[in-house]
């Protein structure tokens, strides 16, 4: 009646607590008393199935306007284009230049360049 809103309850993370404040603010409410408590036990009650948790996260991101895209347009050239790119490379220089995973060699690596000299 006087424009004040109080929200209370328990959530699993500080991010969820802040999300409630964002939702209320998006409704145009300026006076908010946020009595929501972050409860570690609440976090443990989340469904352990990875696919269900991923869907829950996607729904939460959609609710606050996240597109699900984790990289900016300026970093697209670093993203793997083919499935083979995900395997990485044994070439350090290539890994750095192309932003690919580096896979170290499994055995000893010869240093230097082979020449015609015989010792």
Tell me what the structure shows.
Helix content is 33%, strand content 13%. The chain has 119 residues and is of the alpha+beta class. It has two domains: 60 residues, no CATH class; 29 residues, no CATH class. It has a two-stranded parallel ribbon. Helix 1 links the parallel strand 1 and strand 2. The longest helix has 14 residues.
Summed up, what is this model?
The chain is 33% helix and 13% strand. With 119 residues, the protein is α+β, with helices and mostly antiparallel strands.
What key attributes describe this structure?
119 residues, 4 helices, 33% helix, 13% strand
Instruction: Tell me the number of helical segments per DSSP (H or I, 4 or more residues long).
Output: 4
Q: What's the number of structural domains?
A: 2
- Taking the alpha carbons of the first and last residues, their distance comes to 95 Å
Provide the structure class: alpha+beta
- The sequence of SSEs as H and E is EHEHHH
Mean pLDDT: 72
Radius of gyration: 25 Å
> How many beta-strand elements?
2
Strand order of the largest sheet: 1-2
Please render the helix and strand layout as text.
Elements: E1 4-11, H1 14-26, E2 31-38, H2 40-44, H3 50-63, H4 92-98
Parallel strand pairs: 1-2
């Amino acid at each position: 009646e006087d424009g004040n809103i109080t929200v209370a309850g328990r959530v699993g993370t500080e991010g969820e607590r802040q999300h409630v404040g964002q939702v209320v603010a998006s409704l145009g409410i300026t006076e908010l008393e946020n009595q929501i408590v972050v409860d570690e036990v609440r976090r443990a009650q989340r469904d352990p199935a990875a696919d269900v948790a991923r869907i829950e996260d996607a729904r939460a991101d959609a609710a606050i306007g996240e597109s699900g895209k984790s990289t900016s347009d300026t970093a697209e050239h670093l993203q793997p284009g083919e499935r083979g790119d995900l395997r990485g490379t044994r070439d350090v220089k290539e890994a750095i230049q192309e932003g690919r995973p580096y896979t170290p060699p499994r055995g000893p690596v010869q240093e230097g360049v082979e020449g015609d000299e015989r010792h």
